[in-house]
Design goal:
This protein is mainly β. Helix content is 9%, strand content 41%. Strand 22 and strand 23 form a beta hairpin.
Length: 509
């Protein structure tokens, strides 16, 4: 649910605008923080209440990481519900405060205050908090480590873990792989850690971590990319990847280097020609591999034989965002996965509603080449509904609609195949901007040829900052914009007519 707890999520580091939380399967960044509770200083945490995430992972523990904020209602509800306390008591490290004598001794809980502006006094029911987070009920001190890092470190953790809302609860397996589990019960949390692979124990153990790339492609070549991990206790210097389809080898790849335990590497395999889709099986092996059971991953890749066909080699992206425009971003990628155009995020509106964002023209697409348009929403509810009925549309230069939508979860879009027709150039000449750099006034001159034109100043994210709509122009034109109130930096001047546009760069100083 969007903005469940964000009347304003503005920390000292700014408003969160990430596409989404840290993707499942990512490798957890390490951190080292100090526990707020002084009584934990004797709990074996280096003797002074400090602890490192990787120390616990390397010891074979699965870590449940809860990043919350003391002003957050849902965080308080989960914190006082007892799920983390019960989980920690039953499964935490043997001998730690609050851990049962019969513990399974295979898990750990770490709670972090994600708002770097929170003082230690606030943790103890000070101004701006919901309650006493260290002692939420009389005589009940939270026993698992809770940290209130300084703003710089809190913001770094938020950034490293792509924290987009509080609470965020992650499961981190001993091999450092992250997945978001949410506010589960103690029983559900423990069930979730069953999917973690056993800690590294064999000297040689090459694991297949993930199979990257697109799930849907246009007809043609396909280049598999996989991520492997050293799940062995000795460094891995070489490995072989084999990709099969229907039992037949269709692609191979090799790794050479020096991966320490739990180190990862991407392996680009040989290209599969004339790929028609199917279930690809990726297998990694290394010399004297002691564990073949974790070396295989399957991926189903489908071929779209009828992608949205553009008549030209240019497409136009129109976005009408909902209230929470800071959650919305989009991109167009080429067959190699490189981003060739993107837009968003934008500033939020003060209340529910929609705002039309400037059209972004993506020129020079390669004819008969397949591209992918993707639109993202941070909170999994698209750009619609209770926060304003937004919509996205991708059109070609003839205004034929290729893709459109608005009500989706966290990601939407589709494939686009560029046409062979070149974009008709704007019927203008002598397009100049001056002075450049500009300080107070910017002049735009051009020769028009009997038409209607829009002249605009846009930032590098495509946001229109000023515009003049002009009709029935012919001959030499000169348009003036006051620019003294614009922030210093680089901008574009865009002249548009009949669905196509040209731009010039300008610097404001």
């Amino acid at each position: 649910m969007k903005k469940l707890l964000f009347s304003a999520l503005v920390l000292s580091g700014g408003v969160f605008t990430s596409k989404a939380q840290l993707a499942d399967g990512s490798i957890a960044p390490d951190f080292n923080v100090t526990a707020y509770q002084s009584w934990l200083s004797t709990a074996g945490m280096n003797g002074n209440g400090t602890y490192s995430l990787y120390d616990y992972l390397d010891a074979g523990y699965t870590v449940i990481l809860d990043v919350s904020a003391t002003w957050c209602g849902p965080c308080w509800s989960y914190h006082t519900g007892g799920a983390l306390e019960d989980f920690y008591a039953a499964h935490g490290p043997a001998g730690y405060p609050g851990v049962n004598a019969g513990t399974t001794d295979d898990a750990m809980v770490i709670w972090i205050e994600g708002d770097g502006t929170t003082s230690d006094a606030t943790m103890l029911d000070g101004s701006g908090t919901i309650g006493n987070w260290v002692t939420p009920t009389a005589g009940n001190n939270i026993q698992f480590p809770m940290a209130n890092p300084a703003s710089t470190q809190a913001n770094q953790i938020n950034d490293n873990y792509a924290i987009a809302y509080f609470p965020t609860v992650y499961k981190i397996c001993p091999n450092r792989v992250v997945s978001e589990v949410g506010s589960l019960s103690a029983t559900q949390l423990y069930s979730s850690i069953a999917s973690c692979p056993p800690p590294a124990s064999a000297a040689a153990d090459a694991a297949m971590l993930s199979f990257g790339g697109e799930n849907e492609i246009c007809p043609g070549e396909y280049t598999p990319v996989v991520t492997i991990q050293n799940n062995g206790t000795a460094n891995m210097t070489s490995a072989t990847v084999t990709i099969t389809l229907g039992g037949n080898t269709v692609s191979t790849g090799t790794f050479s280097g020096n991966l320490a335990t739990y180190g990862t590497a991407d392996v680009v395999c040989s290209t599969i020609s004339s790929f028609n889709g199917g279930t690809l099986v990726a297998t990694v092996t290394t010399a004297s591999d002691n564990n073949a059971g974790n070396g295989t991953v399957n991926k189903v890749v489908s071929v779209n034989n009828n992608p949205a066909q553009a008549a030209t080699n240019m497409v136009k992206v129109d976005i009408t965002s909902d209230q929470y425009a800071s959650e919305t971003t989009w991109e167009i990628t080429d067959p190699s996965g490189a981003v060739i155009a993107s837009g968003g995020p934008w500033s939020n509106l003060g209340a529910s509603g929609t705002t039309v964002r400037p059209t972004v023209n993506v020129n020079g697409l390669s004819p008969n080449t397949c591209y992918k348009f993707t639109i993202y929403d941070s909170y999994g509810d698209g750009i619609c509904c209770a926060y304003g009925n937004g919509v996205y549309t991708v059109k070609d230069a003839t205004n034929a609609v290729l893709l459109t939508g608005g009500e989706f979860t966290d990601v939407d879009g589709g494939l686009i195949k560029a046409g062979t027709a070149s974009v008709v150039e704007l019927d203008i000449t002598e397009f100049n901007v001056y002075p450049n750099p500009a300080e107070d006034v910017l002049n735009v001159s051009f020769n028009a040829q009997n038409g209607d034109y829009t002249v605009a100043i846009v930032d590098l994210q495509g946001r229109e900052l000023a515009a003049q709509n002009l009709t029935g122009l012919s001959g030499a034109q000169m348009i003036t914009f006051p620019v003294s109130e614009l922030a210093k930096g680089s901008y574009l001047v865009k002249i548009s007519s009949n669905g196509v546009s040209e731009t010039r760069s300008v610097v404001i100083r």
